[in-house]
Structures are given as C-alpha cells and as structure tokens.
C-alpha cells in the first residue's frame, strides 16, 4: 500500500494487547499504525489510578512471557503489584522495544468501514484523519468502557464526581471530605479502604454484597522469584495449558466426597494462601454443583461474619442470592475491617434504595445525606462495550447491528461479515476468566501466525465463516451451561448494563483447552476461516 495514511495494520489500544501486537507484527515487516486514546501506554493500568488499585494475579505471572530477558531482569516489589508498578513495567516494555514510535496518542479510533472492492479498511480517528489498512487489530481491552449509572438528578450534583476507571492522574485528596462510594465490585473493594483512611466520613452504597477474600499481600519472595526464573520455560508452558492461565494444578477431588472436617481444613489453608482462585479450585465441583458451591460459599460467609463487629452490617456484607464465584471473585486488603471504622457507614440499597442525586448529595427512601464527592466504582460495559464504542461497518451491516442480541464470533477473534478485523481477547475467548496476559499472548500470536500464512499464500482477505461462528458461539454458551455462571446476574452475562443482551460473554472451557482448539484450527489450514 502507498500513501502517508496507508499501512498494513491499524492497532487500536496501547495496553498489553496493543503493545504485543505492534511488537510481533512489526517484526514480521508489516507497516503498523497504533492509536491510543490516552497520553501514553499502559491500557488498564494507565486509566485505573484510583487509590488501592492493584492486580489480583501474582506479579510473577502477570507479565509477558515472550520477553524472557525482561522477566529475568525485572524485579517486582510485592506479591501483588500495585498500579504504579505495573504501569512502570508497561513503560519499560515500550522503551525496550521502541513501541511508542508506532502509536499516535491522545487519539481515539471512532469508525472503521470495510471496502470490499479495495479489500481494506478505512479508519477514521478523533483528530479528523482517515487511514487505510488491510487489517485492523482491536486491543481495546475487555474492561475499558466505564459505566456510570443513570441516576436521577446526577446532572444537578455540585460536588466532585469520580469513576475508578477514569481516575485523575494528579490524584485526589479526600482529607476531611464527606465521600460517597457507589459499588462494591472489584474496584470498590480496593478503593473503599483507602478512601476511608482519608475521608472525614465515607458512606458506601451497596446493591450486591461480594465474595472477597484477603490477599495476604507481602513483599516479593526472592526465593520464589529465583525458582520461577530458573524454570521459565516450564512455568510458561504450565500457564499456557492450565485452566486459568496460572501455574496451578487443577483439582481432582469432589467436595461432596470428602469429610466435612477435611474440607474445612482445606478451605482454611486456601484462605491463608490469598490467591484469587484458591477456594474456587480447592475441589473440582464448586463451580458446577450447587450443593458443593453452597458449602464453599458458607465457609466464606462465616469468615466475613468473623471480621465485621456490627451484626447487622456483617449480614449486609454477607453475599446471598447467587452462587460463589459466579460474579468475579475478589482479593482485598482490609476490606471488611474498614466497616469497623467509626467514619464508615454502609447503606444496603436493596433495603433503602437510592431515589435521586441532589445538588448536595444523595437521597434514599429513608434518608438524605450530603457529600463533597461521589466515587462511582460501578465497573464497565464489559467485553462488548469497548469494541462497540467504535462505529464498525462490515460487508453488509454494522457490528452493533450484528451483535444486537449478543456477540457472535469465532474463537473470540473474528465475526463473520467483518473481514481482516481481529479482536484480541474478545467475547467467546477465556479473556476475563484467565490471567489475561497469557490469553493476550495466545491471541496475538495466533493472529500473527495467520497473517504470515496469508502472505505465504499471497492471500489478502481472511474472514470467519458463518458456520464456524455459529458452531463456536453455541459451544461457548453450551460449556457455560455446564456451570453455575449463567444463573447469576453478573457482568459476565451483561447484566450490569440496562438493555444489554443476557448471554455469557467469555469462554469458560479453560485457557489450555482453548489453546488446543486454536492450535488444531491452525494445523488444519485455519479451519473455520475463509482465506482468499
């Protein structure tokens, strides 16, 4: 292709997906233009700068495995790295491999339209430019479209409003302020203890209590790091073939087949481990069997009650009405202890609903409270939201039209009717049910290998077939149906966004099984993709 604004590949997003896509595709000699809405690299870790933001995958494993040299030289300071350290790591990767030079920052991709005759995409950006590209790779992240609920009167509020996913880079000082926090999902559970330490008073508005376990975060263990680095190839292989993209052995025992005392002892040990999937993976039937799930859930509920002094507050914080693990489980630091502070109040909005936001604060059915600041920890329009924020026109329709009743696609990578367009860790892939860096690497490498095969064949267009797409989309829902996940209103099901179709968004069949499927597809001449 020729012309100043013509490239082989447009890459959208400078998070872990976009950075690796630029690196790998550039190494193949393709011309690349990346776009990033933010001012620098980092993706999730560029935007989510709220107090307490940290990863809940152990730092040693939440990093690129393809750069072994960097893995050997980079030293994490904590078992679970905080946002500034992960962002520093992303910057180090960008510096080492000169990745910034391929990006235009502070620029959103607003639209992309396929030209069937020219066999290329026309991409329009927020700076008024248009670009031609044979391929578009969307590394927009699964959790990047912030969700602020449409509360009555919100526009009238005169105090400060923040969302955890769009945090001011200069930080926020809550000292002496009256603060409301709305939401008790993963980001809420992280931000609430930190805000409570600063604020004169903090009121938490909770709709659904969450299962969360203590992280028992510690300084990094140099001995463990040495072991991991020494066995880097083995660790990498085990993560890539595991269920969740972690170096963890899958459980083999049924919870229903062990004595209660033994199960309790196992849960006690897993609780002390402070790992995201420790209790979920203690036994092999916790996410599949309601009876087993109840036993595990009751264990966690009992531990919550032990930590909260006020019996009514404790009961409000005990999750009920859904299966343990079917909303994203969380790791926390002093979350439940925070509710023992005198400056913290919990409002159960199922019992006392929010009526409106006033100029001075928030009015519920039972009380009106004034606040200097409101923090929305209300999550994201997950998985589909970031993709559909771009106006994408395929051969015959827009992607928003095609996904009107829920996303359909092949391997989370492509949707029929949208040639040469790839989503990294898109709907229908392990994505948010995995150590996402492992899943990102697998997807980017699959795309890079596919494009290399196309060049060998002299092919210009690749597109998922309608048959392969339908079969895979059915499989994603079928496998989810073997578990308890679809029975819960969660963002995995799109239930947090009014009007969003209720389908299970990620693939729950496991990272290793998904990789094996993709490898088989590639070995069988990219079965399910039409290459021309």
Overview of this structure, please?
The structure is a single chain. It is built from 16 helices and 20 strands. Strands 1, 2, 3, 4, 5, 6, 17 and 18 form an eight-stranded mixed sheet that branches. It is globular and about 70 Å long. The protein has two domains: 6-145 and 381-531, FAD/NAD(P)-binding domain (3-Layer(bba) Sandwich); 182-219 and 231-376, no CATH class. It has helices at 16-27, 44-47, 68-73, 83-96, 186-198, 222-230, 232-240, 260-273, 290-307, 311-317, 335-338, 385-388, 399-402, 436-457, 466-481, 511-523; strands at residues 6-12, 32-35, 103-104, 109-115, 120-125, 130-138, 160-163, 178-182, 201-206, 212-214, 330-332, 344-348, 354-357, 361-364, 368-370, 373-376, 391-393, 421-423, 462-464, 529-531. By secondary structure, it is α/β, with parallel strands linked by helices.
Key structural traits:
alpha/beta, FAD/NAD(P)-binding domain, 2 domains, 16 helices, 17% strand, globular
Layout of SSEs?
Blueprint: E1 6-12, H1 16-27, E2 32-35, H2 44-47, H3 68-73, H4 83-96, E3 103-104, E4 109-115, E5 120-125, E6 130-138, E7 160-163, E8 178-182, H5 186-198, E9 201-206, E10 212-214, H6 222-230, H7 232-240, H8 260-273, H9 290-307, H10 311-317, E11 330-332, H11 335-338, E12 344-348, E13 354-357, E14 361-364, E15 368-370, E16 373-376, H12 385-388, E17 391-393, H13 399-402, E18 421-423, H14 436-457, E19 462-464, H15 466-481, H16 511-523, E20 529-531
